[in-house]
Amino acid sequence: MAPYHVVLVHFPIALWMTATLVILFRTLSDGPTAKLFDRALVPLLSLGLLSGIIAFSVGLMVWPWETISASALGRNHVLTASWTIAYWAVILWVRQARGESVWDGLSRWVKAGLASLGCGLLGITGTLGGHLVGIYTDVSTALRQLGWDVYTTFYVPDSTLIVLLLISALLVGIGVWAGRQKAAS
Asked: Which pTM was predicted?
């Protein structure tokens, strides 16, 4: 299964990287070409998400869970891969839910920032996967300089996750409330 995973991961990588370029181009331009590219954004993100889920699923079949979870590097790769899929799913959902209004005002810059972060997360996930098969890059050196050795498990305390979930729920609530206020006026 390992060769299939290695081949399959390149589909979401290519699609999400292309989506990032579309988002950045659309952020910088309101021209007809940018709007044309934007029309392809939801299909790019959708195909990226679908291929990401498939690649993730096949990746879990490469080694038994007991094996991949026994290694800090393996745990980190599975963790960042799941974060990457969830992150790009949120970017897709926001684009679908907000439609063209995602490009109004400050939102366009937030979208560009989120796409850039998603691209970085994608790169980190790929770097960790590369390390698992013996292909090393300078990204891990940069991560080490930032304080994270990819060969040690990256932990997020449960209390941090609970706070993040509460903040997320609060932000969603504010967004829904603001949307209703805008619709009422």
From this structure: 0.81
